[in-house]
Design a protein that fits this description.
Layout (H helix, E strand, L loop, with lengths): L7 E7 L6 H15 L4 E8 L5 H11 L3 E6 L4 H10 L7 E4 L8 H12 L5 E5 L6 E4 L3 H18 L11 E4 H7 L10 H11 L4 E5 L1 E3 L10 H17 L11 H10 L8 H5 L10
Parallel strand pairs: 1-2, 1-4, 2-3, 5-8, 6-9
Antiparallel strand pairs: 4-7, 5-7
Helix pairs in contact: 1-2, 5-8
Bound molecules: guanosine-5'-diphosphate and magnesium ion.
C-alpha cells in the first residue's frame, strides 16, 4: 500500500471480553501502527458488559492514541453494536470489523484492507470455507456443522453465493456503509447476512477471501436451541423485509416482539430507528 493509503476505522464489538480483549487490542494497534501507512483508528463497541471490559479498553487507550470506544448500557447485541459503530463511518475511507478474541490475526485483517483499498471489491470478507484458508484451530464439530446448515439456509433464501457470511472479519468502503445504513435492521448474529444482502442488492461487490483462523475458547455466543431459532427467525424476517408481503405483517409486530423477548435476543430495529443516524459519542480514556 502506498503512503497515500486510505484512512481506516476498525470496529471491535465486545461483550464481557475482559479475559480476551487486552492482548488483541495491543496486537492490532502495534501491527497497524507499524504496517498501515494510512490513518488508523480502532473503536471498541461495548454493550451491557457485566465485567471489566471497559477498564481493560481504557487502559489500552492510555497506551495507544488510536484506540477509542463507544459504550451502550442496553443489551443491543453484536449486530446492534456494529450498527451503532458503523455510524462513525464518516471518520474514515474504509470501515471494517473484527472479533475481540483475536481469532483473525491482524495480518489477515490487513490483507482484507489492502484488497479493499486496491479496489478488488466494495466489501472484502474473510472466509474460513474458501479454498486456501488456513485453520490453525478449528471451531468445534457441532459449530462447524451448524455453520454449514446456516449457510445452506442463507443460500436457499438469499442466493448470494457466499460460503462464510459469519466470519467476524469484514471491511468495506465508507460509501458502501453509508448507502446501506437505513437497511441495517437485525441486531443479533444474523446481522452479517443483513449487511451483505443489502449491499449486494444495492449493486456493490463482495469478495470472499481465504483467511487464517485460530478459534478461541471463551465464546460469548450461546450455542443452543434458542440461538438457532433466533437466527432462523431473523433470516426469515430479513427475507420478508424484501418481499411484497412485508407491509401486511404489521399486525404481527407484537408477537414478534414477544418471541424475541422469549428468545432473549435483541429485537430487530424499526424502520424509524434505522433511519435515525445520530452517532454516539466516541470516547477516549
Ligand atoms: N457488543 C457486543 N458484542 C458481542 C455481543 N455478543 C457477542 N459479541 C462479540 O462478538 C464477537 C464474536 O463473539 P465470539 O464469542 O468470539 O463468537 P464465536 O467465536 O462465534 O463463538 C466478540 O467480539 C464478542 O465480544 C453482544 O451482545 N454485544
Ligand atoms: Mg470467537
Amino acid at each position: 500500500m502506498k503512503p497515500s493509503a486510505p484512512s481506516l476505522l476498525l470496529l471491535i464489538p465486545a461483550y464481557n471480553e475482559e479475559g480476551r480483549i487486552g492482548p488483541v487490542l495491543s496486537l492490532y494497534a502495534e501491527h497497524f501502527i507499524r504496517h498501515y501507512p494510512g490513518r488508523f483508528q480502532l473503536v471498541v463497541v461495548l454493550n451491557g458488559c457485566r465485567d471489566d471490559t471497559l477498564g481493560i479498553v481504557r487502559a489500552a487507550e492510555q497506551r495507544y492514541l488510536c484506540i477509542g470506544h463507544l459504550d451502550f448500557p442496553a443489551p443491543i447485541g453484536k449486530g446492534g453494536a456494529l450498527i451503532e459503530g458503523l455510524k462513525l463511518a464518516p471518520l474514515a475511507d474504509l470501515v471494517g470489523y473484527v472479533d475481540a478474541d483475536g481469532a483473525t490475526p491482524p495480518e489477515a485483517f490487513l490483507d482484507l484492507v489492502g484488497r479493499c483499498a486496491a479496489g478488488e471489491a466494495d466489501c472484502v470478507i474473510a472466509s474460513r470455507w474458501t479454498e486456501g484458508s488456513r485453520i490453525d484451530v478449528a471451531q468445534t464439530k457441532d459449530r462447524r456443522r451448524a455453520s454449514r446448515w446456516f449457510n445452506a439456509v442463507v443460500e436457499g433464501l438469499f442466493w448470494m453465493g457466499i460460503r462464510d457470511t459469519q466470519c467476524g472479519a469484514k471491511v468495506m468502503r465508507r460509501a458502501v456503509v453509508e448507502s446501506v445504513q437505513p437497511q441495517l435492521r437485525l441486531a443479533d448474529l444474523a446481522f452479517d447476512v443483513n449487511l451483505l444482502y443489502s449491499l449486494k442488492r444495492a449493486g456493490f461487490t463482495v469478495r470472499e477471501v481465504p483467511t487464517v483462523w485460530t478459534d478461541k475458547s471463551g465464546s460469548k455466543v450461546a450455542f443452543n436451541f434458542k440461538t438457532s431459532l433466533n437466527m432462523l427467525l431473523s433470516l426469515v424476517r430479513l427475507r420478508l423485509l424484501y418481499s411484497p408481503f412485508y407491509a401486511w405483517l404489521g399486525p404481527l409486530r407484537p408477537v414478534e416482539a414477544w418471541v424475541y423477548r422469549w428468545l432473549n435476543a435483541p429485537p430487530p430495529r424499526s424502520r424509524e430507528d434505522a433511519r435515525r443516524n445520530e452517532p454516539a459519542e466516541l470516547r477516549h480514556g
